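[Q] Does anyone have a clean structure-token version of this?
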Amino acid sequence: MSYDIRGTGVSRAVFSVIVLFAMAFVSGGCADISKDPKAVLSSYLDSWLHGRYHEAYEYLSERDKKTKKLEEISPDVDMDKMSAFKKVLYRKISFEIDRMTVEGDKATAEVTITTPDFGTMFQDVFTAAFGALDQEVMQSSQIDDMLALRYSSGNVPTMTTRKDFELVNEEGKWKVYLGLEPDRWDIEKINEFFGDIKK
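[A] Here you go.
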């Protein structure tokens, strides 16, 4: 696309300065977050906790990625096929990076993660509606409908967990280091690490 500045009263020199300033502004707005360990951890957590696992995987250290592929550690959750109510619950997941300490090429962070308290929700629903009814006999869709009805007001019980995270600087870029190891870390360990919030 081109613009004709003739007749506008704007000289080519002034026009060039305006263009350069605009380019600098845009570039500044797209700063590389890899230089900031807190920004990297924040992006990783936001992606992972809200089901964007491919995006989250890119924030992991090379050592972690060489040890485990994405499909080996990501929960079997399809956000596209998830019920509307579960999507609402996912939006209630939040986190706060309470402290970040950087020492050379390593950083540690203390994080508070808030999620819906699914244990309390299930117990509340089944106790109120069916007493001691065995939950195993119910279909997933029935459980979703019951939860949606019970918590339609949006007053969902939550729980908080506190986790420590490590980051490493790899060639000038900060990455989240989970310490994944062969034959030790798997989906159960990942879920345990995040407080088993992906049930």
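[Q] Thanks! Anything notable?
[A] The mean pLDDT is 75.
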